[in-house]
Design brief:
Low-confidence stretches: 1-13, 19-24
Bound molecules: S-adenosyl-L-homocysteine, iron/sulfur cluster, FE3-S4 cluster
Function: Catalyzes the methylthiolation of N6-(dimethylallyl)adenosine (i(6)A), leading to the formation of 2-methylthio-N6-(dimethylallyl)adenosine (ms(2)i(6)A) at position 37 in tRNAs that read codons beginning with uridine.
Strand content: 15-25%
Subcellular location: Cytoplasm
EC number: 2.8.4.3
Keywords: 4Fe-4S, Cytoplasm, Iron, Iron-sulfur, Metal-binding, S-adenosyl-L-methionine, Transferase, tRNA processing
CATH architecture of the largest domain: Alpha-Beta Horseshoe
GO cellular component, one term: cytosol
């Protein structure tokens, strides 16, 4: 079941090594290898790190053997994520025996959570750098090369890396992430992110628009605006004369070009406004898709989680979305077996899933994280087998829901942005529709980056299949 946990989630990207763009690798004398875990923001951070390291003469490599610096950008969201990283670090530690000059560094949320521990007590790494300290990487590398302990886990109230152009390392050249804010001020009791990422801050709106424009100019056709809670984006210019809300930012990016698709993630149900929904309805190139994590369908559990909405409130929000955006795709995150969860609470979650009929869901069983409010206040009292059984039920219900949702699309025609060649066959392309559903169709003369109208002829629970129509 643990595997099921990751299979159904984004974080299946876990442990990806970035491949350097072809023209990058040979121009640098020193090489770094980076592996990233966790959420899209973390992957995007690795691209910021790559940019900082390029300026220091380090080029990215996919080949571990030629690297003089290994970096692991880590995630602390669940215990399993940390275990995976520990295993990797132990492997790298043995690589150091063969190559004593090699530096190994830990970045990201686990670095922030454990601070110097992995360096001092466990001697697993040479440098420890938290998510707000990447600008100090060059100095820390120099220190570590000189044999010193290098740790910087200071969190910042201002750092957004807004002026740094991320180096796109592992990408399809069509879709890209753009971070618009950092940190999180919500205190969901189960969540470690406010502790590892610090206070919420919004990036300069103009630097975001500039980055999106550059991406478009370089052939990209879709940007996903990223933040832990994008709807609370709020930027004030230095002079204080200008403010930009998330709805306004969305509009600015949408106006760059009709051929640039705009997505965003994540929306906290309490913060998404009608204004955002109306901007989405107004612009064809803002995708009709919202990731609206519910976490639980039980009001009592939602209160314990400090999500600040009730079951009924969430349902009303979903109805409002369907009113303003009738064809909007909806996805969610769900946690099973949170502290004190009863069978009745669990059934409330199942009912919620039947009500919303999510197109996509990332489902987990609760994993207590040290230092979080839940760890301090409540007992992690649901036995693991119960957590996992409930997760299995949630996963199965979601599979049925999403299959039914896919079947409803058969016969419809969608505009698909082509992202690449299908994994199964070189004669087929794949892309996504507005609602974020994956569509596969015969290649003909179409290419990556094209918009193609595709009529859906059949489906599985994860993929629509169709043919291009003129
Ligand atoms: N900012 C986003 C989510 C960030 S973490 C939001 O507010 O929705 C991604 C997901 O991981 C969460 O939505 C939650 O479902 C899950 N998660 C977070 N902490 C967890 C924990 N301790 N155990 C299990 N799942 C957790
Ligand atoms: Fe964690 Fe809640 Fe913030 Fe999401 S909104 S990152 S779940 S504290
Ligand atoms: Fe993980 Fe940190 Fe993202 S804990 S989910 S990498 S913000």
């Amino acid at each position: 079941m643990l595997d099921q946990n990751t299979k159904v989630h984004d974080e299946s990207r876990q442990g990806e090594a970035f491949s350097p763009a072809a023209n990058h690798s040979n121009t640098y004398s020193k090489k770094f290898y980076i592996e990233s875990y966790g959420c899209a923001m973390n992957f995007n951070d690795s691209e910021i790190v790559a940019s900082i390291l390029n300026d220091e003469g380090f080029g990215a490599t996919r080949n571990l053997e030629e690297a003089s610096l290994i970096l692991v950008n880590t995630c602390s969201i669940r215990e399993k994520a940390e275990q995976t990283v520990r295993k990797r670090l132990t492997e790298f530690k043995s690589a150091k025996k063969a190559n004593p000059g090699l530096l190994v560094g830990i970045l990201g949320c686990m670095a922030e959570r454990l601070k110097g521990k992995l360096l001092d007590e466990e001697k697993l790494v040479d440098l420890v750098v938290g998510p707000d300290a990447y600008r100090s990487l060059p100095a820390l590398i120099a220190e570590a090369n000189g044999g010193q302990k290098s740790v910087n886990v200071l969190l910042s109230r201002e750092e957004t890396y807004g002026d740094i152009s991320p180096v796109r390392l592992d990408n399809n050249g069509v879709t890209s992430f753009v971070s618009i804010m950092r940190g999180c001020n919500n205190m969901c009791t189960f969540c470690v992110v406010p502790f590892t990422r610090g206070r919420e801050r919004s990036r300069d709106a103009y630097s975001i628009v500039r980055e999106a424009q550059e991406l478009f100019d370089n052939g990209y056709r879709e940007v996903t605006l990223l933040g832990q809670n994008v709807d609370s984006y709020y930027w004030t210019s230095d002079s204080g004369d200008e403010t930009v809300t998330f709805a306004q930012l969305l509009e600015k990016v949408a106006l760059l070009h009709p051929l640039l698709r705009v997505r965003f993630s994540t929306s906290h149900p309490k913060d998404i406004t009608d204004e955002v929904l109306h901007v989405m309805a107004k612009y064809e190139n803002i995708c009709n898709y919202i990731h609206l994590p519910v976490q639980s369908g039980s009001t009592r559990i939602l209160q314990l989680m400090n999500r600040t909405y009730t079951r009924e409130w969430y349902m009303k929000k979903v109805e409002r979305i369907r009113e303003i955006l009738p064809d909007c795709g909806l996805s969610t995150d769900i946690i099973t077996g949170f502290c004190t969860e009863t069978e009745e609470d669990h059934q409330d979650t199942m009912d919620m899933m039947r009500f919303v009929r999510y197109d996509l869901a990332y489902m987990y069983f609760y994993s207590e994280r040290p230092g979080t409010l839940a760890a301090r206040r409540y007992q992690d009292d649901i036995p693991e087998d119960v957590k996992k059984r409930r997760l299995a039920e949630v996963v199965e219900l979601h599979r049925q829901n999403s299959l039914a949702g896919m079947q409803r699309e058969v016969g419809r025609t969608f505009k698909v942005l082509v992202e690449g060649t299908s994994k199964r066959s070189a004669d087929e392309l794949f892309g996504r529709n507005d609602q974020n559903k994956v569509i596969v169709f015969p290649k003909e003369n179409y290419q990556k980056g094209d918009y193609v109208m595709v009529k859906v002829e059949s489906c599985t629970s994860g993929t629509l299949r169709g043919v291009a129509v003129k």
